[in-house]
Amino acid sequence: MRYHTLLCRNSVIRMKLIDWLGIRSSIHRKIFIAFMLVMLLPTTLISVSTYYFSIDLLKRKVSESFLDNLAYNKNIIGMEFKQFEQIADYILYNSDIQKVLSPSFKSPSIQGYYDLQGAQQSLNNFTMQAFAVSNVASIQIFGDNGIILFTGASSDIYPNDEKFKEMSWYKQAVQTDQPQFRFGSLNEDSDGLVGSGSGYNPSMIRTFRNNATLEKLGVIYIKIRSDLFDSLFEDSNMKKAGKFVILDDNGQIVYHPDKSMLLKAFPGVDKLREQQGDHGSFITQDDQLMVYYHIERYGWWLTDSIPLSELLKDNKIIFNITIAVVLVCFILSGVIWYFVASGIVQPIKKLAFVMRSVKEDGLAVKSEYTGKDEIGLLSSSFNYMIEKIQELISRMVEEQAKKKDMEYQSLQAQINPHFLYNTLNSIRWMAMIQKADNIKEMVEALGRLLANSTSKSEAMITIEEELAIVKDYIKIQEVKYSDKFHVDFDIDPKLLKVKCVKFILQPFIENAIFHGIEPKSGTGCIRIQLKLSGNVAEITVFDDGVGMDVEQIMCEGHDKGNGTRFNGIGIKNVDERLRLTYGDIYGVTITSVKGQFTSVTIRFPVDADFEAGGPK
């Protein structure tokens, strides 16, 4: 009930709004409002679509720019850390160092002393060159046999203590032959998880093995300069933006312009790990455009981000300008469309005034608008309609006068058949008195034929009644022609009660006698057949007379489906009455061969009573 009340209230408000705008009573306002809506809706849609498209385009362009910078920085990192791996590879394959780290090496001996000094000298010679071209701070080798080799600043030396083998970094290093990079302090007794220390010391750790036997000999520890990333990205656009961040495989920050953020947990690392592919972008929960690149070899992430508010601050200006342009265009279009609508509506108003004046002045009005547009066409059509109405009224008056005259003549003509019928009745009584039976029968048949033509006014009779008329006509002609012809009937008795158009057989019997049998030498035969074909009654009148040419009864170019129409008056009359009554697919078909025969077929549908199982 409440919903119905609310619906009714909304309908009332809508109707009041329509009345207030005057849409119902003014075509001018209809056109004006329609034009304004057509102007406003697409313009608004285009403006909004363009605005959001520009935002999306800006995001893509910024993402592509950031990704290009990240890809550049990724290559720099890859090349730099590849140097660290190459340094470790050289040291691993040095025979002097391999020798002193062997389990069979005996350091207390004199030879062992010289071998140890040679290994240390090889390490020093190599690292002097490595330090000059790389960001290596120091190199320390921890042998499983207790030998420790070191090069670099003395402050970086790790004490020769078994405690270092219990550190998490050492356990991680011996589990794989791949280089392991870490950024926490070497003294950090932890599992290396995110945020597990405050000392920032980049380093690389790798297992040291025998070249021949692949036996584990120890661990090589390369300490990297702490200002590595600052020197790498000194001229990078990412650094200048202040948003460039590098994460290690544990998700802790290993590079950030704000040094206080180093080794802390990155808040969006879980979202990063959900991304597909090694690079891309997404919007964070705090409305930041985050762009990332993943270094698969080390499991690191390079990220850069920018707040959407900062990214889209110029777009707000564009949006405001767009709104202003739309409003200006809307106002200018409103003024233009108002005058355009006025130019369209004024001729319509004038034409409407002329149409309304028909009530007062009748048909003695005329539109004076003669423009070449649709309104001018409507005006000329209105004038034409008025002229035609005047002609129709004049014709109707004339036809009414003719109709009254025809009714008088029809009443007058009814006297003639009545007088003829009474005269025939007198002749019949004279024939009976004089015992002229042939004259009596002929007069009786003619009387019945005349009575059927005048007594019944309906257009439809039964086939049985139609055959009775035909038989009376045949009886009259038999008296005239004696034994010139005989008639055979092949009638389906079930069809006798079917109704048909009145007087459809007599013209064809007459043609068969006069044009078929009479010119023929000898006796002729006429056969009348009645049968049912589907739901169509077919009456065929066949005679074996002299036949005829089609041109005798047909003429070309009329409205039958086969392009022809009957020319004989009686035949034409029957054919047209059948088509008008039942449709163009029914009517009369004539087949004739000159000198042999003529066959006429009359087709019409049976009535509904017969189809329902009426007459049997």
Task: Walk me through what this model shows.
- This protein is an alpha+beta fold and 616 residues long.
- Among the domains are: 136 residues, PAS domain (Beta-Lactamase, 2-Layer Sandwich); 43 residues; 133 residues, Histidine kinase-like ATPase, C-terminal domain (Heat Shock Protein 90, 2-Layer Sandwich), CATH 3.30.565.10.
- A 5-stranded antiparallel sheet has the order 2-1-5-4-3, with helices on both faces. Strands 7-6-10-9-8 form a 5-stranded antiparallel sheet. It has a 5-stranded mixed sheet with strand order 12-14-15-19-18.
- A hairpin with a 3-residue loop joins strand 18 and strand 19.
- Helix 2 packs antiparallel against helix 10, helix 13 runs antiparallel to helix 14 and helix 14 packs antiparallel against helix 15.
- The radius of gyration is 59 Å and the shape is elongated.
- The protein starts with a helix and ends in a 5-residue tail after the last helix.
- The C terminus is likely disordered.
- One of its GO terms (molecular function) is phosphorelay sensor kinase activity.
- Its main location: membrane.
- It comes from Paenibacillus silvestris.
- InterPro entries: Bact_2-comp_sensor_kinase (IPR050640), HAMP_dom (IPR003660), HATPase_C_sf (IPR036890), HATPase_dom (IPR003594), Sig_transdc_His_kin_internal (IPR010559).
